[in-house]
Amino acid sequence: MILPVFSKSIDERFLTHRLRSTSFGGIAGAWVAMALFAWHYYHDHFWSWELLSVGLTMAAVKLGFMTWYHFTD
Hints:
By secondary structure, the chain is mostly helical. It has a domain at 30-73. Helix content is 78%, strand content 0%.
C-alpha cells in the first residue's frame, strides 16, 4: 500500500516497521515497570502500586489484543 500524499517517504515496509517497533517498545516498557516493581518490593520492601498497575495494564492490553486478533482474523 502506497499512500498518495507521502508516496516517496512512507510505504508498507515503513508502516510494518513502525508497528513492530511500537509493539517491542510496549513490551519493553512493561518489563521495565515490572522489574522496577520487583526491585522496590524485594530491595526496599515497598509495594509500588503505580508500577504494578502500569505493568499489568500493559500486559493485559497486549494479551487482550492478541486474543481479539486470534478470534477475528
